[in-house]
Structure formats: structure tokens, C-alpha cells
């Protein structure tokens, strides 16, 4: 890994070209990609170009490219991953649907496949990434992942960038950095001598050029070229004479002035060609210039050393001799002329590749925005976001941000302005988990609320609330989440549209359960079940594959919590409905049925439950879906931690730790203390003295954030753990916590069997620890209550306590 840093014109590109030539001369394959200033917001562009070049498919059409790529992909690669790679490289078969994989999983699977292909490479290769300071964020992140295995392959990577770039590719571990400094006085003198020669007539001119160029070799060369084209210098390179009186010669003050003067001396055809090319980008083909209505004048630009021919077959390709030349050519045009070129280019992209317009939507949007057509640019940014949503959510959010910015610039008298301002903000709020900090998202949501109120747009506000509720829930602010959930349900009820109401309900279920508002959970889950009318996928457009199964699962949890009949059938129906659905739905339903019920001793984690959980873990892992995998791992971990075998419990700890790691990364903060209690319980059982302080902190955090559902359970686990250790201080603390738990329990449903059974169990354990004669009666009452509620887990625990008591007597 080599990175080359230097100012514009200092020689980065020349160094890259020389390295490439040396490598090619030694039989090393060279793959090259470049980054452009106008494309820094176009996702996937840089990484796709590099991978196409490295795979040898740059000039092939779809079928031929897929055939060539298939020969390089490992034979045992997952067919779904091959489809994802085809899509990334822009060669996907339009007849084949893409696998339904969430964006993060998609990226991990692509990284694994590309890195496997890299590790299998046996031939030496050189990869060049030029001008990384202009790289798009998605490509930068993906290339960072791909570069992690380069040191284990027969490959070299060369990355060039300017000093202001501080991104990931400038900090690749193990890379050697070359910093190119300006030429010293003696080196500048040597360069000017090679350019101008030794004739005395150029001496004074040489001194002025040296001063103006300040050690920058490109600046030096451009000033000499300008003087040659102006006729001040006559002769050939290294053998010039100055024809004019030095006192009458003006040397350009800056390199930009030198380039502008050279462009001004072009004939009209060449100047038009250069102007149009500067709008296309650093690299261009004559065919695209023709599509813009230009008769390309290439020869004059080559002779003037303003452009270079970088490819000859199968289609000639040209590049600006230096990025500064393109910048000057672009910025020296009249704004109206430039806007017209952008408009034509946007149309040409659509006409030339109609099958790829969605993939090119972000590029089309940028050109339309530069042309001044804000409304059209807005629409294309929204299309770009839609295309990116299942590929890279951060890229989609960038497109929504661009659309939001444009909408705010639309004149106030435009009748569509308010709707335009609402739509991207709705999606930014709905996906706010991937956005800024909590306070920033709160401000953004406030903007959406104001706009929706002004427009009377309840639906957009309700959709935007999905992300806001989820974000606040994940952050552990149960009270605020519950208030937002109540507002959202009021909106949804006033709208009266079944699809959004059903689809937006999953975060509401989680919020009410967590806050202990079980009555509202029961009411709303029943409402959703009625609206769905037996259709398992109604409302699935909002993220969850089977919203109805989720409603049934949460109704079941509410029913067993409140002691209502039908909860066991709900568990069965939810699991049956989701059996052949997507990984996220399956993992969620297993967690919300088996997971909750095992946690509270409602069900026993028997062999059939463990098998079902194992199957879902495998499904989630195969799908590469983090949320599904974390839920599945958590549920299986809970089941295994309730087994008698220490090996099972050890695996349960590992699974819980895996889930914790994923939740930490994804900012699902409210579940972190829950895992800490599960793991702490097992570590305390093994004699780890540090386990109880960790559990204590986790329980206090759950109580402090009003996480009733998890906090009640966690308090019970901590109390049991204290009583098992059994010091006098532990028993006193356990008694205090039982009193606190009794008072903290939601008083809406004082006869909840969960409340009655848990408190009976804890008081029985406290009595046993004290040697209290009330213990046998408490165990008897505990057993009867568990049997009456049909809570299998508690019944098994109660019978075990009773058997021990009988043996003792």
C-alpha cells in the first residue's frame, strides 16, 4: 500500500503514470480508477469502475461481462452474492430479481466475496486510485473494506490525494506515505533548463517563471506552454529563444491565468469541444460530445497538450492533461452556456443508456441541478434515493439531503414547493437511526412537523415518526418514545388508511411493551389484526415482511402479561404465519414469542424451542441481516442460558455477547443492559465477583429510563442472584429491591399473573435465605399461581423448590 500526497500540479499523476508504465513493462496487470470533483456525491462510481477494470469487463456488454466475471468468481460462491456483485458493477441481468438483503448485509456479503476473489489471485497486480480527495463516501468505505486483505495478495495499491484529504484512504493501516514537496530552487532551475534550453535570451524569463511557479512543476510547464503559444518563445523543447524584449513580456501571474490564456487562443471549434468536455468530466469520449451536438475537434486539443488520449481501443477515450485545465475550462464559460451543456448532458445520459437511468439517477440529478432546472433535479434526486435505499442507506440519505436542499431553494410561489420540502424530510426522519445525533434529529423532525402541519399532511408526519419513535426507543428514552407513540397512533387513527397503520405499528408495539403500557399494546395490536383482516403482508412496504404476525405475537405477550386467554394460540399462530417469510420477520417473531415467554418463565426452553431458535439463527446468518441475526442470537442465547448443561449456558453467553456487539454498533442502546443482566447472571453462577456490580448498574439503568418490561425482569434476576450469594448485605439489598419492585410495578393491572407470580417467587427465595418458616407456604402459593396461569417455566421452578423443601423435611 502506497499513498502519494501533494498539492495540485506537484506531480502525483505523473508519478502514478510512471509507476503504471514500470509495472506494465514487467508484466504486472494495471487497473486504474479516478475520482472527479463533480461526482463526489455519486455513490458507487469509483469502486464500480475499479472493480470493472480489475475484472477485465470494462468494455464488455452485459451478457459478455457477466460471463467473464463468472469465470473469476469462486465456484462455491453464493449465487445471491454473485447477483449482488453484478448489480454493483452495473451488469446485472434485468430479468433476474435482486436478492432481498438489507444494505448493511449487502455490503458485508460483497466485501466477503471481493476479498475472497482477491485472496485467490495469483498474478501480480497494481491498482491505482487517483485523486481520492474527490471520492464518493460509499466507494471510500467499500474500498476501505477491500483493502484490508491487500497485504496478503500479490498486489500493490497506489492512492493519490491532496493534503486537505483526511479520509479513510489516507489512513490505511500499514501504508507507506510519500509526500511530494515543491521543487527546490536548484531542481526548478534544472527543470526550466530542460524546458527552455540554455540560450541567454531566456535567462530573465526563466527567473520570473521560477518565482511565479513556486516550485510547482505543472505550473512551470503551463507557463512555458503559454509563452510558446503566444509566440514569445520560438524553437523546440529544450532549445527555445525569446523573440521579444523581456521588458515587454508579461508572464502569467498564476497557473490559472496561463491556462485561461491558452484556452482563449484556441479556435472556436476546439474551444467548444473543450467546454463541453469539461462538463462531462475529467475523462470523455468523442461519441458523447457528438450526442451533445458538438463536432469534436480533438487534434488541436491534443497538439496544445490540453488533453491526452488515454485509450485507443475499442473506443478512443480522452482525459484532461491535468484537473486544473478542466477546472479553468469549466469555470471560464458563461454560466448560461455551462447550464445548457449540463441540460444536454442530462438528456444524453437518459437517451444513451435508458436501461440504466435509475443507476445514473444521481448523476442526472447533479447535471439538472447545475443547469438550473431545480424541479427536475429534485425528482431525480428522489429517484436516486429510491434506487439506493436497498443498496446503501447512507447513499439514499445523501440523495434525500440533496433533494431537501433543492426544495428549500424552490421559489416560494411554486405550488409544489411545500410538498417537495416535506417528502425528503419524511424519509430522512423515517431513517433517522442512520443520521445525526439525537438532538439534531429532533430538530429535523421539528421541521417536518411544522411543514406537515402547514400542509395538513398527517400521513407524512406519521411515516416520519416511525424513525423518530424507533430512534428514541433505541436510545432508551422510554417516556419520550411512549409520548411520540401516542401521538403517532392518534395520527394514524385520524388518517384511517390500513396500510400505513399496519406497517408503522411495529415500533409502537416495542415502545408500549418496553414502557409497560400493556393495555395500549393489547388495544393497538388487536386494532392492527382487525385492519389486516387475515392478510399477513398488508403494510409490508414499511419494512417488516409480515406485520400481521408481529401484531399477533405482541397480542400474545400482552395477553399472558395480563392473564387473558388465548396467548398460547397467539404464539402458535404468529410462528406458523411467519415460517416461510423473510429472515427479519422470522427472527422478530421468535424473539417476541419464545424470547419474551422464556424470559418471564411463561414457557420452558425445551428441545423444540431450541431447535426453532437454532433454525432462525441459521436463516438470519445466511441472509446476512444484522437485525435478524441479533434478535435470533439473543433468543437462542436466552433459551440456552436456561439449560442445565454448562456447555449450553457457555454458548448462550457467547450468543448474547454477539448480539450485544451488534446492538452497540447499531446504537440499540436500550437492550445493552438487558444482555448485561443475562450474562452477569451466568458469570455470578460461576463465581465471578464482578458480575453483581455490573448487573446492579444495568438494573438501575433500566429503572432510571423507565424500561418497565425489561426492568421488572432484570430486577428479579438481580434479586435471585443476590440471594444465591447470600451474604447479610446481599439479603438486605434483596429485600430492599423487592420492596422497590413492588412499588415500581405499574399499578394499572395489579392482578397481573406476571406480577403475582414473580413477587411470590422472590419472597419465597427471600424467606429461604433467612430461614423463615413462611417459606413452605410461599412455595405452595407460588406453585398454585404458576399452575393457574399455565406458566410452564415458573411451574417447573416452583416444583423444583417444593421438591428440595420436601427432601429437606
From TrEMBL:
Residue ranges annotated for the Orc1-like AAA ATPase domain, each copy included: 2-158
Keywords noted in UniProt: ATP-binding, Nucleotide-binding
Pfam families with a match to the protein in the record: AAA_16
GO CC annotations, alphabetized: cytoplasm
Gene Ontology molecular function: any one: adenylate cyclase activity
SUPFAM superfamilies: P-loop containing nucleoside triphosphate hydrolases
Protein name listed in UniProt: Orc1-like AAA ATPase domain-containing protein
Organism of this sequence: Mycobacterium gordonae
Amino acid at each position: 500500500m502506497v499513498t502519494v500526497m501533494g498539492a495540485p500540479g506537484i506531480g502525483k499523476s505523473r508519478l502514478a503514470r510512471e509507476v503504471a508504465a514500470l509495472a506494465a513493462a514487467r508484466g504486472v496487470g494495471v487497473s486504474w480508477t479516478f475520482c472527479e470533483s463533480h461526482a463526489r456525491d455519486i455513490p458507487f462510481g469509483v469502486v464500480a469502475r475499479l472493480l470493472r477494470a480489475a475484472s477485465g469487463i470494462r468494455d464488455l456488454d452485459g451478457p459478455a461481462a457477466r460471463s467473464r466475471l463468472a469465470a473469476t468468481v469462486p465456484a462455491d460462491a453464493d449465487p445471491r452474492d454473485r447477483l449482488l456483485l453484478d448489480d454493483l458493477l452495473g451488469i446485472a441481468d434485468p430479468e433476474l430479481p435482486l436478492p432481498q438483503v438489507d444494505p448493511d448485509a449487502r455490503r458485508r456479503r460483497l466485501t466477503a466475496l471481493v476479498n475472497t476473489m482477491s485472496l485467490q489471485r495469483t498474478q501480480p497486480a497494481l491498482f491505482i486510485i487517483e485523486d481520492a480527495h474527490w471520492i464518493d463516501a460509499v466507494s471510500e468505505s467499500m474500498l476501505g473494506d477491500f483493502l484490508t486483505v491487500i497485504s496478503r495478495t500479490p498486489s500493490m495499491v497506489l492512492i493519490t490525494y491532496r493534503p486537505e484529504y483526511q479520509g479513510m484512504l489516507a489512513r490505511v493501516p500499514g501504508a507507506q506515505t510519500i509526500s511530494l514537496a515543491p521543487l527546490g530552487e536548484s531542481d526548478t532551475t534544472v527543470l526550466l533548463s530542460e524546458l527552455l534550453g540554455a540560450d541567454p535570451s531566456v535567462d530573465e524569463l526563466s527567473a520570473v517563471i521560477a518565482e511565479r511557479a513556486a516550485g510547482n512543476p505543472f505550473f512551470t510547464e503551463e507557463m512555458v506552454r503559454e509563452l510558446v503559444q503566444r509566440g514569445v518563445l520560438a524553437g523546440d523543447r529544450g532549445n527555445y529563444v525569446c523573440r521579444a524584449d523581456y521588458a515587454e513580456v508579461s508572464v502569467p501571474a498564476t497557473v490559472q491565468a496561463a491556462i485561461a490564456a491558452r484556452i482563449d487562443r484556441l479556435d472556436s471549434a476546439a474551444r467548444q469541444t473543450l467546454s463541453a468536455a469539461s462538463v462531462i468530466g475529467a475523462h470523455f469520449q468523442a461519441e458523447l460530445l457528438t450526442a451533445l451536438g458538438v463536432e469534436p475537434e480533438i487534434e488541436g486539443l491534443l497538439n496544445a497538450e490540453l488533453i491526452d488520449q488515454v485509450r485507443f481501443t475499442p473506443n478512443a477515450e480522452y482525459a484532461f492533461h491535468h484537473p486544473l485545465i478542466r477546472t479553468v475550462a469549466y469555470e471560464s464559460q458563461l454560466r448560461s452556456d455551462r447550464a445548457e451543456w449540463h441540460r444536454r448532458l442530462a438528456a444524453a445520459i437518459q437517451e444513451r443508456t435508458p436501461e440504466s437511468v435509475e443507476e445514473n439517477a444521481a448523476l442526472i440529478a447533479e447535471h439538472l441541478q447545475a443547469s438550473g432546472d431545480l424541479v427536475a433535479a429534485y425528482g431525480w434526486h428522489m429517484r436516486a434515493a429510491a434506487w439506493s435505499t436497498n443498496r446503501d442507506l447512507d447513499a439514499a440519505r445523501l440523495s434525500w439531503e440533496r433533494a431537501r436542499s433543492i426544495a428549500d431553494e424552490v421559489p416560494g410561489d411554486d405550488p409544489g414547493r411545500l410538498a417537495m420540502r416535506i417528502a425528503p424530510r419524511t424519509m430522512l426522519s423515517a431513517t433517522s437511526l442512520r443520521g445525526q445525533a439525537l438532538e439534531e434529529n429532533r430538530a429535523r423532525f421539528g421541521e417536518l412537523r411544522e411543514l406537515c402541519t402547514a400542509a395538513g399532511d398527517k400521513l407524512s408526519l406519521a411515516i416520519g415518526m416511525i424513525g423518530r419513535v424507533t430512534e428514541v426507543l433505541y436510545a432508551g428514552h422510554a417516556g419520550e418514545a411512549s409520548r411520540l407513540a401516542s401521538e403517532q397512533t392518534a395520527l394514524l387513527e385520524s388518517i384511517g388508511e390500513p396500510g400505513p397503520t399496519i406497517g408503522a405499528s411495529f415500533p409502537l408495539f416495542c415502545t408500549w411493551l418496553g414502557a409497560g403500557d400493556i393495555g395500549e399494546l393489547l388495544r393497538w395490536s388487536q386494532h392492527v389484526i382487525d385492519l389486516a383482516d387475515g392478510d399477513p403482508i398488508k403494510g409490508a412496504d414499511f419494512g417488516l415482511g409480515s406485520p400481521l404476525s408481529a401484531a399477533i405475537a405482541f397480542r400474545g405477550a400482552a395477553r399472558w402479561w395480563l392473564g387473558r386467554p388465548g396467548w398460547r394460540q397467539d404464539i402458535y399462530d404468529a410462528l406458523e404465519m411467519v415460517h416461510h417469510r423473510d429472515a427479519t420477520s422470522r427472527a422478530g417473531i421468535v424473539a417476541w414469542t419464545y424470547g419474551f415467554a422464556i424470559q418471564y418463565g411463561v414457557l420452558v426452553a425445551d428441545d423444540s424451542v431450541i431447535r426453532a431458535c437454532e433454525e432462525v439463527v441459521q436463516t438470519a446468518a445466511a441472509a446476512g441481516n444484522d437485525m435478524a441475526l441479533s434478535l435470533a442470537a439473543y433468543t437462542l442465547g436466552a433459551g440456552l442460558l436456561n439449560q442445565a448443561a454448562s456447555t449450553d449456558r457457555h454458548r448462550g453467553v457467547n450468543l448474547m455477547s454477539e448480539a450485544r456487539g451488534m446492538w452497540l454498533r447499531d446504537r440499540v442502546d436500550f437492550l445493552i443492559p438487558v444482555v448485561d443482566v443475562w450474562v452477569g447472571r451466568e458469570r455470578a453462577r460461576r463465581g465471578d465477583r464482578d458480575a453483581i456490580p455490573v448487573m446492579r448498574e444495568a438494573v438501575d439503568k433500566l429503572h432510571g429510563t423507565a424500561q418497565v418490561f425489561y426492568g421488572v425482569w432484570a430486577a428479579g434476576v438481580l434479586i435471585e442472584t443476590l440471594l444465591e450469594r447470600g451474604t447479610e448485605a446481599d439479603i438486605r439489598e434483596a429485600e430492599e429491591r423487592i420492596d422497590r419492585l413492588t412499588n415500581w410495578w405499574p399499578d394499572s393491572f395489579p392482578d397481573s399473573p406476571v406480577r403475582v407470580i414473580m413477587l411470590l417467587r422472590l419472597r419465597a427465595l427471600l424467606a429461604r435465605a433467612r430461614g423463615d418458616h413462611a417459606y413452605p407456604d410461599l412455595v405452595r402459593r407460588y406453585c398454585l399461581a404458576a399452575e393457574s396461569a399455565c406458566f410452564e417455566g415458573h411451574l417447573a421452578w416452583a416444583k423444583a423448590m417444593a421438591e428440595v423443601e420436601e427432601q429437606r423435611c
